[in-house]
Amino acid sequence: MIGRHKGRIIMICQAYTDSRADLEDCFQEVAARIWEGYANFRGDAAEATWIYRVTLNCAINFSRRSRQKPPTVALLDHDMIEEASSETDKNTERLYRLIDMLNPFEKAIVLLWLENLPYSEIALVMGMSVKNVSVKLTRIKEKLKQNAKTD
């Protein structure tokens, strides 16, 4: 399951971390939560929706905790993360910097939108109405444009 969704998991983890070591730690934490929680996955939502929710919750919590921890040094080189990270170009890095300026809730919504999820699925993952997703995305896009002008 993690292999099928690794690109999405890495994208979300990358948006909520500042270093390679934190990205690896966040990815590992998400993988552990997925493994622990799989027995409780009832299938009420699609597998991808459940993965998004677990990943977003883990990444947001990881981000909050990592602000309080001293910096770490990477000890291992993970192939799964390397594959996705090596594809990142300058425009993508700039986009991540702009997304990083958003609050955690806005960041989650825009990341799901960048994954081309329909508004209905974003609403399901985020626990909000489809109309609210539409309104929030319009405001977030405006905020990103404004941030891009000053970046």
Protein described:
- With 151 residues, the chain is an all-alpha fold.
- The protein has two domains: 1-88, Orthogonal Bundle (Rna Polymerase Sigma Factor, Chain: A); 89-151, Arc Repressor Mutant, subunit A.
- The chain is 73% helix and 0% strand.
- It contains eight helices and no strands.
- The longest helix is centred in the C-terminal third of the chain and has 21 residues, at 130-150.
- The radius of gyration is 15 Å and the shape is globular.
- The termini are far apart.
- 25% of the residues are buried.
- The model has no long low-confidence stretch (mean pLDDT 84).
Which features characterize this protein?
151 residues, Arc Repressor Mutant, subunit A, 73% helix, globular, Rna Polymerase Sigma Factor, Chain: A, mainly alpha, 8 helices, 2 domains, 0% strand
CATH H-level superfamily title of the largest domain: RNA polymerase sigma factor, region 2, helix turn helix motif
Mean pLDDT: 84
Question: From the 3D coordinates, which CATH architecture of the largest domain would you assign?
Answer: Orthogonal Bundle
Strand content: under 5%
Largest sheet geometry: none
Task: Write a concise synopsis of the structure shown.
With 151 residues, the protein is an all-alpha fold. Helix content is 73%, strand content 0%. The protein folds into two domains: 1-88, Rna Polymerase Sigma Factor, Chain: A (Orthogonal Bundle); 89-151, Arc Repressor Mutant, subunit A, CATH 1.10.10.
